[in-house]
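Renewal narrative, Specific Aim 1. Our central claim is that a sequence can be written position by position from structural information alone. The example that follows is taken directly from our test logs and has not been curated for this report. It begins with the structure tokens describing the chain, in the order in which they were read.
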């Protein structure tokens, strides 16, 4: 699928390399070296996809993304940045990024991410954002932006903490065995003796429960695993 791609990147050598590679895939690629000119290109020329650096002259990538979404531009946006901290990723997703890649990134990976994003229709992205939100107690989880708040205040979760929480949420209160969590969240193909799951549940309780020593939501089920109770009173375990 060929597309009009806007690459907002101030590193001229990097931008040239990515532009040539994407053009070989059949895409039409425009390059903007700063946030202001990137915004103007979208406003006047439109784009099917934007690849956005965060550390730009003038307007930052975050400011550009906020402006794009506030103006109603719904094209997929891939953040491509050397800033790989969780707080930067969460901020990017909360502002409406569809994907986030950390530099350095190989050309083949960049092309694969672009292809995958272009295959998703805009309506599907909007529907997904509207559908995948969960609440329990004072906690709200937005899956599309991978963000979490408690009493309206952002809670910083590591990628694995978020993946663990999401797996429990999608289990809709069912008990999930530790081995299943190790397989689905950490990718272990066979049971291994580890306290990894317990340690991450303890971290989540510290961030999301009113009283981590007496949890109401992240419930231990003896000799089995964990479940997430969305009501005020924890189920018997």
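The sequence written for that structure reads:
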């Amino acid at each position: 699928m060929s597309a009009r791609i806007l690459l907002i990147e101030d590193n001229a050598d990097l931008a040239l390399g990515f532009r040539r590679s994407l053009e070989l895939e059949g895409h039409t690629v425009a390059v903007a070296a700063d946030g202001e000119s990137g915004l103007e290109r979208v406003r006047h020329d439109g784009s099917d996809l934007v690849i956005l650096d965060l550390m730009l002259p003038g307007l930052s990538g975050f400011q550009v993304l906020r402006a794009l979404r506030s103006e109603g531009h719904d094209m997929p946006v891939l953040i491509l940045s050397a800033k790989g901290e969780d707080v930067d990723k969460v901020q990017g997703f909360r502002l409406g990024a569809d994907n986030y890649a950390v530099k350095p990134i190989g050309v083949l990976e960049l092309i694969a991410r672009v292809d995958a994003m272009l295959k998703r229709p805009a309506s599907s992205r909007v529907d997904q954002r509207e559908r995948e939100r969960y609440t329990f107690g004072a906690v709200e989880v937005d899956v599309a932006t991978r963000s979490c708040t408690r009493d309206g205040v952002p809670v910083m979760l590591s990628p694995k903490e978020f993946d663990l929480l999401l797996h429990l949420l999608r289990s809709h209160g069912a008990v999930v065995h530790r081995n299943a969590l190790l397989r689905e969240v950490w990718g272990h193909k066979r049971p291994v003796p580890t306290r990894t799951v317990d340690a991450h549940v303890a971290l989540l309780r510290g961030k999301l429960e009113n009283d981590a020593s007496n949890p109401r939501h992240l419930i231990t089920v003896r000799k089995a695993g964990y479940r997430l109770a969305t009501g005020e009173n924890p189920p018997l375990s």
